[in-house]
Amino acid sequence: MLQPDFCELLVTEVENFQGWVNETNFRIMRPNTMNRYGCVLDDFGLETMLDKLMEDFICPISKVFFPEVGGSTLDTHHGFVVEYGIDRDVELGFHVDDSEVTLNVCLGKQFSGGDLFFRGVRCDKHVNSETQSEEIFDYPHVPGHAILHRGRHRHGARATTSGRRVNLLLWCRSSVFRELKKYQKDFSNWCGECKREKKERQRQSIAATKLEILKRDGQTAS
Ligand SMILES: [Zn+2]
To answer: Which residues surround ligand 1, an ion (CB under 5 A)?
Structure first.
């Protein structure tokens, strides 16, 4: 998604910003509740660029692939950079993002490990339910390459075992989707567990109907 020279430019700019933060003892917001290293890009002048990135690239793709989770009505973003390595955050636990659609781009540099592991999309109620075998998906980072996924797709990052890994994250949100979600209970069009439960209810109802028919026909025959 991003050319090597742009990745380097962005990493350099983040380093400049962090250098300034350290020199001036300026207090900055960390990217989210889980990452201690990195910074919010919107805080140092990149908000407009990231808005355009969302509008021109993420929205058209999300409209096609993620319409059921608000992908066609994305309207705000939270953009940040995270750093992993032995002297940074090492790994990231299993979680869902505070986003409808997440863009995750690896900016480099040299590293090993750090694979993402995905374990199925879930609604709030089912966020801790079991993983089905077909939901297991692992993704190795390649500098410049991006992955776009639903925010509710449960995932985590394995340990970055050597070097330093820097990733750009763009959490894209839809205020329309968030408002509508308040009035819904069934998310079987995107939650793996809601879908499984719905199928199970249908299976039981079909089985009950069959039994009913068998009983009736049995009575008629006798
Ligand atoms: Zn559910």
So the answer is: 123, 126, 187, 191, 193-194
